[in-house]
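# step 3/5: fold
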Amino acid sequence: MPILAVTREMGSLGTFIGQEVARRLGYTFIRHQIVAEAAQVYDAAEEKLIATVESKPGPWDALNDAARRHFAFLAAEVFDSALKDNVVIMGRWSTLLLRGVDHALRVRVCAPTELRIQRIAERRGVGSEEAQALIRRSDEGVRARIRQFFDVDWGDPAVYDVVLTTQRLSVVRGADLLCHFLGQPEWQATDASRAILQDAVLAARVRAALKADPETTRLNVKVICRGGRLELAGTVESQEGRDGATRVAAAHPGVLAVANHLTIMRFPKW
C-alpha cells in the first residue's frame, strides 16, 4: 500500500486533509507520535526535538551536535513509521526523507498568506496581528530547518510529487484528489520500492544509534545501506572513533556486514 507524506503551511488545512484521507482509507495518521517515540527510544526531551523541527535555528545551530543528534533520532522514527504502510505522515520532514521511495506520495499543502491569517485568527480566537505573527514564526522556523538539514527551499514545488493550494480547494476536495492519486498504479508498493525503504530504514536506525552512543555521538558519519550491508564514510579524528563506529553499526539488528571507509584526519589543536 502507498504511504502519504504531507508538509503543510500553518492555516493551509493540510492537517485536516491528511486526517480525512486517513479516515477514508483506514490509514493511521501519524504526527505527534514521531516525537513521542523518538523521545522515549533515545531518551531525548520532547520539547527539544520539536524545536529542532519547528524553531528557527540560532546563528551557531548548524554546527550544534544536539541539532544533528535530534535530526537523526527523528529521521529514524519517520522511517520506522513509513515501514508500517497504510500511514499518513504529517510533517517531521517526511516529504524529504522519503524521496526515492516510489510508493510514498509526497505532498505540500499551501494557501495565500491573507487567507491563512484569517483561518488562524478564527480558529484560535486571536486578532489578525497575532495570527500573522504565529504564521510568520512557523514559516521561518520550518523553512530554516529544511534549509539547514536538506539544503532545499521548502516552497520549491519541484521537491514534491503534488502541491495543493487551498484557496479554492476544500478539505473534502483535497482528500478526493489525494485518495485518487493513492489509488493509481504509480504509487503502489513493489518489491523494489519496499527493498529501498528497508535499506533506508536500517541506515537511519544506524545513524540514530551512532548519535545515541556516547562514544560516537560527535561523529558525523555517512551511512549507506544496500541489502542490509552497510558502508560508513566520512572523517573521524581517531582510530578509537573509527572502531567505535564499526562496533555500533555492526551491533544493530538487521546489519549483515559493515564496510568501514572512514578516514582518520587529526585536526590541529590551537
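# step 4/5: annotate
DSSP finds ten helices and ten strands in the chain.
# step 5/5: archive (pending)
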